[in-house]
Amino acid sequence: MSDSLNESSLRHLARLACIELSAEELDRLPARFHSILGLIDRLQQVDTQGVKPLAQSFDLTLRLRDDEITTRDQRAQFQSLAPEVADGLYLVPRVIE
Amino acid sequence: MNLDDTSLRMLCAGLRERTFSSEELTQAYLQRIEQYNTRLGCFITVDPERSLSQARAADIRLARGEGGPLLGIPVAHKDIFCTEGWLTTCGSRMLSNFVAPYDAHVIQRFKEAGSVILGKTNMDEFAMGSSNETSFYGPVHNPWQLTHVPGGSSGGSAAAVAARLAPLATATDTGGSIRQPAAFCGISGLKPTYGRVSRYGMIAFASSLDQGGLMAPSAADLAWSLGTLTGFDERDATSVARPEEDFGAQLEHSLEGLRIGLPRQYFGSGIAPGVAQAVEEALRVYESRGARLVEVDLPHSELSVPVYYVLAPAEASSNLSRYDGVRYGWRASQYGDLNEMIARSRAEGFGAEVKLRILTGAYVLSQGYYDAYYLQAQRVRRLIQQDFLQAFEQCDVLMGPTTPSTAFRFGDKGSDPVQMYLSDIFTIGVNLAGLPGMSIPVGFDGQGLPVGLQLIGPHFSEARLLAVAHGYQQATDWHARVPGRGEQA
Q: Where is the signal peptide (chain A) (predicted)?
């Protein structure tokens, strides 16, 4: 069902995944992809009419909890891990001129 | 103290009787790590001062007569578990500067038990791999033959336990990452039922499949420690509330009348002769102890690999979207706008296999393909689970080889990713169905490499699995064999 992946569709995927690909990767990846698509395309032959998808190994109902504050303020501790912060905010390149 | 020939029960007794202190025990393991880690590459981080100070704290508790089965016992932790104040890399450059600000549930439970953190073990990057070759921190070497892989993704934990650099290690299993390296390294490994062990603070790969577990030389060691990490945790939405169990107390259980199911599909062609032979011999041991062999059918098992390579990358592409170089982790040094900063940070921070899986995930989830791949894979996942549940109507436990071959050489799987993926054919189904599974050593092939027997049980049957494994280990001594650790090399 899948057409083999060309460079432009690979670029599109890389955009979706937010990963910059090098020329070497754009060259190397299609063959690997082709092999993976060959593997997963085998699923198309299975008759699954009437079978309910299984997302978790048990059909869990997610719990609700009371809306209470359970953690302390750890902003300073968490921000010590960030590449760039100021005044309690995370800094990124300007997006609005 | 003979660290090559000991058990957690013996170590615990030694600590209680003051034959040695936790500090002495920890020091002894740290010396071994110092001696062998350069050669084996099992640990990414060791911090002797910190370990020894934890050991001294344990000694104070021991002197007061306090504590449970793991008080003062040094434990190695897979570098996927957030460990407060310790570098926690998940095998990736992306997290090469990430000092975890909190403890994973598993780490917290081990700390409460008074065990000592011996170090953080090497692993395939973000647990994506079956050979430990994808780690940013270099490969782990199989202590039985350094030219061979230890398996993955928990290769560091497996090799550390096999080489007796740690008496116990934590690990995780998404598609076989506990059982396959346990098989390749000749040790015992347990992947519990999905939901048994909280995933809180365990760096996520594929959340509907990931499960924390343990590695040790013997099933008795696993039973000794399993109660420490199981139990309900409200911070994990898929954590299951169960009555507490004493796994150690249920270990001695006769094998008389045990019905062992042998899935036809696990004994077909493509099994290396050395593996097939060791597994056959193990089954004879079970028979001689009164177990009965029943042939069963898992008709969809061949589809487990394609299902997994839709679902796991899909979940991974979503989970790993959090690494954007903004709040923590790797940030590129050269970039123009925000999008370029993110795309370049991810390009530099992730290795080739991780990128391939994220892209695969993006592909199967993208418009036009979602129904055909993702939903179809989830439907086949249900068929695979139903196969197992039906099989358990005819037997108590399933057995077969953990892997089609023993450990392979570095680079042997070449550049085609599917060659590597197919080596997990027998382990993946267990994760898809959420079942508990084990691997125990049952001999060696002609090259002197260990062979693993996989044991699979119904949901929440860990106590039974451990007892079945223990029964075998009472009759054999494969689990007590210790590798050369490259000494002759």
A: none
The predicted complex's ipTM stands at 0.94
pLDDT of the residue at B309:
97
DSSP H helices, A1-97, are 7-17, 23-40, 75-79
Under a CB-based contact definition with an 8 Å cutoff, are residues B148 and B408 in contact? Answer: yes
| In chain A, where the domains are located | 7-45
Top CATH class, B8-258+438-480: alpha beta
How close A63 gets to chain B, by Cα (Å)?
A: 7
Task: Convert the pLDDT of each residue in A45-79 to its tens digit.
Answer: 999 999 999 998 876 677 888 899 888 898 999 99
Largest Cα–Cα distance of chain B, in whole Å? 70
Task: Give whole-number Cα distances, B100 to A1, B266, B348, in Å.
Answer: 43, 41, 21
Nearest to B78 by CA among B166, B156, B138, B151: B156
Q: What is the mean pLDDT of residues B70-98?
A: 98
pLDDT at res. A3: 53
pTM for the model stands at 0.97
φ and ψ at residue B29, rounded to 5 degrees: -70, -40
Tell me, yes or no, if B433 comes closer than 8 A to chain A by beta carbon.
yes
